[in-house]
Design a protein that fits this description.
The complex is a heterodimer of chains A (499) and B (148). Chain A contains 23 helices and 2 strands. Chain A is mainly α and 499 residues long. In chain A, strands 1-2 form a two-stranded antiparallel sheet. Chain A is globular, with a radius of gyration of 22 Å. Chain B is an all-alpha fold. In chain B, helix 1 runs antiparallel to helix 2 and helix 4 packs antiparallel against helix 5. Chain B is flat, with a radius of gyration of 23 Å. Chain B starts with 6 loop residues before the first helix and ends in a 10-residue tail after the last helix. Classes of the chains: A mainly alpha (499), B mainly alpha (148).
Chain lengths: 499, 148
């Protein structure tokens, strides 16, 4: 196999001083913002997206990937130290991580999370390197109907995995699809829903939408909760886990890695699902399940490894098929488009140094995280102590300047205000942002492929069930819908989100 | 008597229906075409109709089952945030980045029990310097620092 050769190309491209610098900046910034409670990877990436504009394509992607890992790592730090999940995938880490902190083992919990992430990162990189070119070859045979079916499957999966009401999640997908097609229709040249605003001719700009929906709405929601004071009562303690802790943690790391790598590839999968699944798996396999929830190292090691492995492998659908599988990947897709790269099969064949460089940089980024962040833990702890009333005006400024620099037009700032309000309303009404943003990104693709499929078949929808791959994907979507409708699964789903 | 049992679903339904109606109304002039030859209006119409239908169903359901209220809304801070963003949009091309950033911090950070005025002013000046340094000098964004 030429995987090793390709990886060598990748490391060659990623290990230049400039790109290492981008990686370092991304990892540090991602951790810094990700540590802030209530701000998860999605909001972090949305806020930091404009920082990457000035960089060359590979540098920008490396920085973004770094931001992603950094944000995830920062989120688990917050979860362990203050029991506040920065985002849904750290919810599980809170359970046992915070309990370990209460026993004075916060340092050990942080190290276990970091080392588990590194192991998962290495495996995830290999899976990405081995699997992506294979999938890219399969997808060469894809025509419009397959793409339609694949997107349908991805969107259905996003609905199934959304918290709360599935019906509202479906409506959010449609709303996303509708807003996604704003702008010039490529086929007819008709300009749709722009109200004469020239900034909308190329579609609603991704940056203010993402920042408003995931960044600002989060700030606004936090402001509703008056008592936002956080306290760190527990000392971090030694970073070294005891021999007993290592013994308990390492099998969980391996299992979590495997599970995460697998679940990450699935559309709709990714960090959140895999960390939940890994926690449940560890609890089932354990001979002493009663220790879970009271500070079991496995409960930190498994989910943290799983979400990192999944974070890596969830790049596979984006880089090979051009279909983002979760909101973070939707943001990555937006970033790639801004850099002038069309995600999809062409990334591997036409920009090999980009694909392999990014793959390699993920591994480098994980290594940097562990080398840099464990000694720096004191800084993050101090950041957690900065009062919110000082932090949020600063974050607000970053959001404004970031949106403005997307097109250097004040119109984008007003769009930002609109999406901040809309995002806040969604939060208050219990409507999930994740299905919305996936629909938004996929809107134009969905319309184009639907049109092409039906041109191929002369308007007959039978084309979607005549082609085997398309049929299989649609049946899988139906299966997911059936799961949701069935009362038994619905209960487990609600229980899973309860925890 | 009919009453709203689930406030969140009720207003979600209204929101989705409003978007559906807006989609149909503002898209009324786009040619629809046929399934085999879709016009620019075909896909938006499908989405709008779906939103209208789903919104209606969610709204109807909220009158029958459920029990959910909307959490507390702290109106004043929210208005401050939105006002700060809008002011930034109005100012940025008139007086440049530095003063706009100061305005955002002053508007959003001002509150009775929050920062004292000199702390707020210090924060505003520091952030203005950071933004100019980061976005204009380090990242090379062509943003006017002191107006056009």
């Amino acid at each position: 196999m030429d995987i090793l050769g390709n990886l060598a190309i990748g490391f060659g491209a990623a290990a230049t001083p400039l790109n290492l610098g981008f990686c370092l900046i991304g990892v540090l910034l991602g951790t810094a913002i990700g540590v802030l409670p209530g701000i998860g990877p999605i909001a972090t990436i949305a806020m930091l997206l404009p920082i990457t504009y000035g960089a060359p394509p590979l540098g920008a992607l490396i920085m973004l990937a770094g931001i992603y890992y950094g944000a995830q790592y920062g989120g688990s730090t917050t979860a362990i130290l203050v029991n506040l999940p920065g985002e849904s995938s750290s919810v599980v880490t809170c359970l046992d991580g915070y309990q370990m902190a209460r026993k004075g083992r916060a340092g050990a919990a942080l190290s276990i999370a970091a080392v588990g992430s590194l192991v998962a990162g290495c495996v995830g990189t290999l899976v990405l390197a081995g699997f992506a070119p294979m999938l890219a070859r399969v997808s060469d045979s894809f025509l419009s109907p397959e793409y339609c079916a694949l997107m349908t499957f991805g969107l259905v999966a996003a609905v199934v995995l959304a918290h709360g009401s599935a019906l509202k999640a479906v409506a959010m997908v449609f709303l996303g699809l509708l807003l996604g097609i704003v702008g010039t229709d490529v086929q007819s040249g008709v300009v749709r829903y722009t109200f004469g605003i020239s900034e909308l001719y190329d579609g609603i700009d991704f940056v203010p939408l993402a920042i408003g929906l995931f960044g600002l709405s989060e700030i606004m929601r936090n402001l509703d909760q008056s008592a936002m004071e956080r306290q760190i009562r527990h000392v971090v303690g030694s970073l070294w886990p005891t021999r007993e802790e290592v013994r308990q943690a390492w099998p969980a790391v391996l299992r979590g890695t495997g599970l995460g790598a697998l679940l990450g590839i699935l559309p709709g999968g990714g960090a959140v699902l895999s960390s939940f699944a890994s926690y449940v798996l560890e609890k089932r396999l354990s001979r002493t399940p009663e220790r879970f929830g009271t500070g079991a190292p496995e409960g930190v090691a498994g989910p943290e490894s799983a979400n990192n492995a999944a974070a890596q492998t969830s790049f596979i659908p984006l880089l090979t098929l051009g279909i983002p599988s979760n909101p973070v990947m939707a943001l990555m897709m937006g970033a790639m488009v801004i850099q002038g790269i069309a995600p999809g099969t062409a990334v591997i064949t036409e920009h090999p140094e980009l694909f392999w460089g990014m793959t390699a940089s993920m591994w480098i980024g994980n290594l940097m995280l562990i080398i840099i962040n464990l000694p720096l833990i004191g800084i993050w702890v101090r950041m957690l102590q900065v009062p919110y009333r000082i932090l949020f005006p600063c974050i607000l400024v970053l959001c404004c300047v970031g949106s403005y620099s997307a097109q250097l037009s004040p119109t984008l700032i007003f769009l930002l205000a609109i999406f901040a309000v809309l995002g806040y309303v969604f939060v208050k009404l219990g409507c999930e942002g994740a299905p919305f943003i996936l629909g938004f990104v996929l809107g134009p693709l969905m319309e184009e492929n639907l049109r092409r499929s039906l041109v191929l078949s002369g308007g007959n929808p039978i084309i979607f069930v005549e082609r085997p791959i398309s049929l299989a994907l649609l049946l899988a979507s139906l299966f997911l819908i059936a799961l949701i409708v069935m009362p038994r699964f619905r209960r487990t789903r609600e229980e899973a989100f309860q925890e | 008597m009919l009453r709203v049992r689930d406030q969140r679903d009720f207003w979600s339904g209204i929101l989705f229906m409003a978007f559906g109606c807006a989609g149909l109304w503002f898209g009324r002039d786009y040619m629809i075409g046929t399934a085999a030859r879709m016009g620019p209006g075909y896909f938006p119409m499908m989405m709008s109709l779906a939103l209208l239908g789903l919104g209606g169903f969610i709204l109807a359901r909220s009158l029958v089952t459920g029990n959910d209220t909307i959490e507390r809304i702290a109106l004043w801070p929210q208005l401050q945030i939105i006002a700060a963003i809008v002011v930034f949009g109005l100012l940025i091309e008139r007086v440049g980045l530095a003063i706009s950033v100061v305005a955002v911090i002053l508007i959003s950070g001002f509150s009775a029990q929050g920062l004292r005025w000199y702390e707020l002013v210090t924060l505003a000046l520091v952030m203005a310097a950071v933004c100019v340094g980061l976005f204009v000098h380090l990242l090379g964004q062509p943003i006017p620092v002191w107006g056009l």
